[in-house]
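Escalation from tier 1.

The customer reports that the assembly of two entities below gives different structure tokens on two consecutive runs. Tier 1 could not reproduce it. I'm attaching the input and our single run for tier 2 to review.
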Amino acid sequence: MKLRRTLLWVNGNDTKKLREAIDHSNADVIVLELEDMCPACDKIKARETAADVLKNWDFKGKERGVRINGLDTEWGRQDLEAILPSVPDVIRFPKCETVADVIGIDAILTQFELTHGLPRNRIELILMLETPLGLRNGYDMAKASKRVTGLGFGAGDFTCALNVDRDLTVGSTQLLYTKQKLAIDAHAAGVQAFDTTIVCRPDQMERMNEFIREDTRNIRQMGFSGRSVSMMPQIDIINSVFAPTADDVAAAHRIIDGYAAGLAAGQSEIWVDGNFLDPPIIDKARRTIELADMIIARHGTLV
Amino acid sequence: MRVRRSLVWVNGYDMDKLKAAIDSECDTIVLDLEDGVTVPQKAEARKKTFDALKNWDFKGKERAVRVNGMDTPFFKDDLEVLEALPDAVRLPKCETVEYVLAMDKILGDLEKKHGLPENSIEIILMIETPLGIMNCYDLARCCKRVTAMGVGMEDLTASMQVTRNYELRSQDLLYARQKMILSCKAAGVQAIDSGVLFNGDLDFYYQDCLNDKRDGFEGRSVGDLNHIPLVNKAFSPSEKEIDWAERIIKAYNEATEKGQSDVYVDGKYVDPPVVAKATLIMDRKRRIEEKSKK
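Tier 1 run:
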């Protein structure tokens, strides 16, 4: 699994923000936006700019993503035609609702990979679930193509579809079923789960940062591996919530070492730090160490 | 259906614990060949489990065995243990209907071979992965011998890549747990919660069991024999419930005899589901009493 704690979205023609995101942020993924945050009058320009930067800029180890317009809009197909020659790492596919939607874009990407001598499934897909129908079909859509490596939740469109106001209080149960179902669907299909972004006015930033930290703790505990982000100051907050702490890593090492020592000594029951070591506990410890290693390999430190 | 409030897990080689479990008040004893037993101990565990199932008096307790996953290299040798004819098989990490049906066939063949009635060896399914959660209703319905479904929180949290927190009324994996309980009830099987893998804090543990009961679980796995009285108490009807149920049934019967159309108890209207609940409570009380007489 890839390290994808923060998926930073940058409007396709905003090369200034892109420069800053590449050089000065710790975002794991950069997603060039062509869809809803890119106004219709800018769409053509954004598409051309995104194709150019994906081809010619050095993203310095960050994953190169693009969110295209839906294939049922007037822009979607041309977005793909323009973007594919630059071979993005991942495409964020908006408002995905049915298996047929996934198979449709998968066919276009497969055709492109075949005719350009690229390995099959080189271009990955993160499906955006933003409607009740999309939520219902999450597992089947995630299984519909091997290039799907993530399911993302879009709360803005989803709450709009339910005709409710979005509740931004910490611990709100408004979207509990929705988010937990998405996480189960994603894990059952063996892909990652990503939560929605939070946008706020710049003058609310400080208050919002506290919310982001708590909210991210909650979704991490549901099984999400990361979330979309649009404002740079939120990146380090989110990254740190998804990173194991030095204590977590030390505890994981104690479990792995204690287990190995217990086995070597022929112990029948192995206890470490007051916990009985069941195989899943060992798995968790291994994963914690793997995640820590990935973060250190990328950023040099654990945060 | 059997009362299964406390399902004590005993590692397959641990005959001292088995003796203590047989002398305890637990409802089910699960002899474990799977994750509680390390690889070098598997052979010894199989041998001792076979012997115990065959020759020991379990004093009325359900004799279950947790086999290794059927897709592991360890399962083949577990088949010999099943020849000792346990009352139930606890089947770990169930995800697909085909998997459960494969065990159904094995047990059906065993029953024929030994002249047992069909479906007399029950299956307690373990749901421990996201895919298992997705499919759990179908798994519970796919054959008649499935009579209970247990959630394994340690493996489930591992495969969801989250930590397992011991907090009362936690919302962690709430959807998954509620989906599993609902699937159990829809399929007509018992819902069994996970045990805890820590020592101490009995107040927490008792409260957690009461919450489980409120959510629809009928029992849970138990690792520590000292926890059995707590778990049994939590999953049995309380005195308050029994008093309420008796008054409901009495009032309802009286009203029906008199031809009254509206029945009220404690100021609350008694409609058929209220009577059904009261009847279930009294039925569970009766089954628990019968069991302890044995």
